[in-house]
Amino acid sequence: MEQYIIKGGNPLVGEVEIGGAKNAALAILAAAIMTDETVQIENLPDVNDINVMLEAIAGIGAMVQRIDRHTVKINGSTIGDFNIEYDYIKKIRASYYLLGALLGKYKRAEVALPGGCNIGSRPIDQHLKGFRALGADVDIEHGKIVAEAEQLRGTHLYFDVVSVGATINVMMAAAMADGVTIMENVAKEPHVVDVANFLNSMGANIRGAGTDVIKIRGVKTLHKSEYSIIPDQIEAGTFMFAAAATKGDVTVLNVIPKHLDATISKLIDIGCEVEEFDDAVRVVAKGRLRSTQVKTLPYPGYPTDMQPQIGVVLALAHGTSTITESIFENRFKYLDELARMGANIKIEGNSATIEGVEKFSGARVSAPDLRAGAALCIAGLATDGITIIDDIVYIQRGYEQFEEKLRGLGGMIEKVASEKEIQKFTLKVS
């Protein structure tokens, strides 16, 4: 079992390069099988979730060729199977995007019911509602979603709740339906826009992505494309809060600052200096930061995926902060781990009250999910002692070369796999 061991107390200083957006890449890889021609995708993050998705795509017969760590060629003309096995799904929830992609292109798909990070129930009823509205028969049998249609037809659809997954999945299917589909109350996240742009680069006709209403005129076929994925706003935000927690000075490179508006405004709220450039953002934290109120909301609101990272910073800030989690109900598990490091926190339902403390003490903690794992690393870097983090497989699902990037900023962090390596690290830093 690999772990991270961290000796904190050093401010993080320097520049860090941000990779491609995992959440955009997962959907774009699924959409890449919707043409019989070869698609090249660049700026892929090299993380476990992406590698599992590529395995799932190769598993149904598509040709997958890794050009390098961040580039892949996919050709879906050789697909012979429309059944995505449970093994892939239980590893990554996003393999459900293959439902929309296969249904759009082949009018048939079978995908196991999803698993993924343990942050609460994420029902897929809106996905199924969308597919049925397009004219597909959708059944759940033997733990699988089976969707098929003679022909998909354009429709007018209003989502009951804003769902990124459903917006993307139904958009993919509708791209190859007969006629016009209008989708209302859709998600506006940057990765929704990225998937729409990618489908358009293959010849789809999608307008309005990034607003409340998306209009799709279905096309018969899609063609080849070369496409580069947007930078990952959550990875960028994680390093920005790491700068805040450690009283550092970090510039994140290769980002779209507009996508980071909500994160930037909270950093300014708590007393950081933030400087924006064309494709970079610098965060400087001096002295003790102050408390604030945070409520997670769909984009352009404050992202749920950035909630644990700000939680760590607020646990060290002066005064009382509150966090209201309105997206996922299990997003507070990390706070129990943070309490082991000395944080002062009360949780009631979907709200947490955080009384800031002067400093954390090092402890052994466990990553309950991807973003929470990254947040605990930030907490470890902000303490004077030694912190050991278990279950780092979650972190590796969504952050490329995480410990290397932190070391590049002066963080003392290593990946270890035995007590002996832990002792070696402890001796080295003491």
Structure description:
The protein is α/β, with parallel strands linked by helices and 430 residues long. The chain is built from 15 helices and 24 strands. The strands form six sheets. The chain has a four-stranded mixed β-sheet, sandwiched between helices. A four-stranded mixed β-sheet has the order 2-15-17-16. Strand 18, helix 10 and strand 19 form a beta-alpha-beta unit. The mean pLDDT is 95.
SSE blueprint and pairings:
Elements: E1 3-7, E2 13-17, H1 22-31, E3 38-42, H2 48-59, E4 63-68, E5 71-75, E6 83-84, H3 86-91, H4 97-106, E7 108-112, H5 125-133, E8 137-141, E9 144-148, E10 156-158, H6 164-174, E11 180-184, H7 190-201, E12 205-207, E13 213-217, E14 225-228, H8 233-245, E15 249-253, H9 261-269, E16 273-276, E17 280-284, E18 293-295, H10 307-314, E19 320-324, H11 333-340, E20 344-348, E21 351-355, E22 364-366, H12 370-381, E23 386-390, H13 393-398, H14 402-408, E24 412-416, H15 419-429
Parallel strand pairs: 2-15, 3-14, 6-7, 10-11, 18-19, 22-23
Antiparallel strand pairs: 1-23, 1-24, 3-5, 4-5, 7-9, 8-9, 11-13, 12-13, 15-17, 16-17, 19-21, 20-21
Helix pairs in contact: 1-2, 1-4, 1-7, 4-6, 5-6, 6-7, 8-10, 8-12, 10-12, 11-12
